[in-house]
Design a protein that fits this description.
Two copies of one chain form a homodimer.
Chain A lengths: L13 E3 L8 H7 L9 H18 L5 E6 L2 H12 L5 E6 L2 H12 L3 E6 L8 H10 L4 E5 L1 E2 L4 E2 L2 H10 L3 E5 L11 H4 L3 E3 L12 E6 L1 H8 L12 H7 L15 H17 L1 H21 L15 E5 L6 H12 L1 E5 L8 E5 L7 H17 L6 H9 L1
Chain lengths: 391, 391
């Protein structure tokens, strides 16, 4: 306990795991600007810009948009705890870690949870969801757009439409999708929709972009019981962010410097433009896929359901997956992710998110992976993989 | 919605409100170091240092200490939601905003809450607390060490001893005390104890130092029901921080850069030394008090209960308090705080916390306050106030 603390100098990494992704110097430096008070008029102006920026990112002009203080999961908790009261029925689609987490939270909110299970690596099946919505009068349908644990994309439009048909509201987890592939709350008619900062927006972790539709906010304001959270009680949070009647009310102290970082990440994002950012994520994914094929590696997910920004790659027979990750970190200072749950030891998760979605990242990753596989006796050609990627 | 976002350049302020306090360049720059993965071995080493640093700050060698991801209030929520199950009885001392918040949270946890009310500006009364503990078999006693809303210090030692006598565990809010006045979890035998980063430690807001005693953690692990929070479920959090059996388990993505900042703030704090930091807070408080007296201003709190780091000053008759704060901000770029709840419009809250506890801050504040009062027709001498403070 008495050993002295010394200034920490982090190693310089290449971040290609499931998040955080590489943060640019301009965003890091934005976070280093002088802290001001969270009630400062200048900070309140910044809040308004951030809210406007989030509405653009989510394509949610009618939603109330705020960055919640905490990890991406805090937005999940805010959505679940505010939308559900004890005794409500929630249909939760579970096709990976994060769907399972939503179901667990919904139970803690006191709801009756109907889980619609799907194999890890498959998208959410609208037919199964519809059967569950038929069987029970659900108040909420919750599902994950981009499953970070499997690399699978589920299609939110049809799922949100089904929920509406059956009178349910929707909670859509876009933690890994926002910024990397199209997210459109208005088109989907999604009710609660949220994301993280450390994925395709490439800001440091610590805030969770969150949006809620007018009808869902109305439902929250009409609750019979208080939500089982004070910190993420939307009635209190929305008035802190100036979304209630009667001006801003003190609630918590916003993470001021993290808000600077998210704001600057959005400035950079809009400079590039959404279409260009999506194209860049798709292109680097295709480069990576070509290179991986040349290394004899396969994807865990069928082509049509793959997320460009989160690639789950099957660990070949006879390869020690942890040793590969160790090799990458030791010799290339490169981070990729391990598998979770039933995919533990079976896949790697390679992120091409935000600033990490570049040709440079693809080439470093293929060179490093090829070298690691060769060091375990695989007969692979690094040069062929790099050629395939850059073609 | 379509107006462009532009890089934000915050004004340079002098922060003397109830937090955040002025953050040093070294801490700001620490936050700007490259983001690394939260599961990186280098980050896990940093986590260990941070845990050790928090144990030193709290004087809690036996407690499990972690920085929770979120505002100070997230630590309150973690404490309340984990320590209480539906039907448990909680005695909550309420002598300001934050005691009231604890009571509200305890109700949301499903507990029966016995409020021990005290006038705002008075410390918690051990006799009243004892009466409440007698009357009901309480599982938990919760109170605030340093009430940020009133500037009052309550004495935790006797309160924790009473709780033990009656078989209750304690939750002690040290958000505003940690780093500014003695906090000693071991001596008090406090069970759950937590703080904020943006007060006397002068790191940006965004993390909440948290400590829990072995017997309290055991009680959490033996709960019959799951806590009404997933994000702050200590069983999950402690294993993420390597405090459980069987190694670290993924839970959330820690706010990596905020952890850099808190760590560097602790490095700086231990360089100065705890005794020197306490003496500095006390000395600047006395300087401020002398200067305020020369301006004819009184404290809201009796001398023996005053927090040196949070000074509630009575707004004199005939003075427009909001106009004074506006004058300070406009002409001196100086932030002080307004009153909350029943003290709204009646007091100012002047913080002397962490980096803001310096003679420079005192002199600027007195000059600015004197000027603001004179601009509203008060017959005060700025020069006399400055002389009194520097004597």
């Amino acid at each position: 306990m008495s050993h002295p603390l010394k200034t920490f100098h982090p190693p310089v990494r290449v971040l290609m795991g499931p998040g955080p992704s590489d943060v640019s110097a301009r965003v890091l430096l934005a976070q280093a600007r002088p802290t001001i008070g969270h009630l400062d008029p200048a900070f309140q102006d910044l809040m308004e810009e951030v809210k406007g920026g989030l509405a653009r990112l989510f394509h949610a002009p009618e939603h109330a948009c705020v960055p919640l203080p905490g990890p991406g999961t805090c937005a999940m908790e805010a959505g679940i705890m505010n939308m559900l009261e004890p005794g409500d029925v929630a249909v939760v689609a579970v096709n990976g870690v994060f769907g399972g987490r939503m179901a667990d939270m919904a139970e803690r909110a006191g709801a009756e949870v109907v889980r619609v299970e799907q194999a890890w690596g498959q998208p959410v099946d609208p037919e199964k969801v519809e059967a569950a919505l038929w069987a029970r009068g659900a108040k909420v349908l919750a599902f994950v757009h981009a499953e970070t644990s499997t690399g699978v994309m589920s299609d939110p439009g049809p799922l949100c439409a089904l929920a509406r048909e059956h009178g349910a509201m929707t909670i859509v987890d876009c933690v890994t999708s926002l910024g990397g592939i199209p997210v459109n709350a208005a088109e989907w008619r999604a009710d609660v929709i949220y994301a993280g900062t450390q994925k395709c927006l490439s800001a440091p972790p610590g805030l969770a972009p969150f949006a809620i539709s007018p009808r869902a906010l109305e439902a929250v304001l009409a609750r019979k019981t208080k939500p089982r959270t004070w910190l993420y009680d939307l009635r209190l949070l929305m008035s802190y962010w100036g979304e209630g009647k009667g001006g801003r009310a003190y609630h918590h102290t916003a993470p001021v410097n993290a808000v600077y970082g998210l704001h600057e990440a959005m400035v950079a994002y809009f400079e590039e433009g959404e279409a260009a950012a999506f194209a860049r994520h798709q292109k680097t994914h295709e480069q990576l896929a070509s290179g991986l094929a040349a290394l004899g590696l396969d994807f865990h997910v069928a082509r049509e359901h793959r997320l460009p920004q989160l690639n789950t790659v099957i660990v070949p027979e006879g390869i020690d997956e942890a040793k590969v990750r160790g090799h990458l970190l030791e010799h290339f200072s490169l981070e990729i992710g391990a598998g979770l749950g039933p995919l533990k030891g079976k896949v790697w998760r390679i992120g091409l998110m935000g600033g990490s979605a570049s040709e440079r990242h693809v080439m470093i990753c293929l060179a490093a992976l090829g070298d690691a596989l060769a060091s375990q006796g695989s007969n692979v050609s690094v040069r062929d993989a790099l050629k395939a990627a850059s073609r």
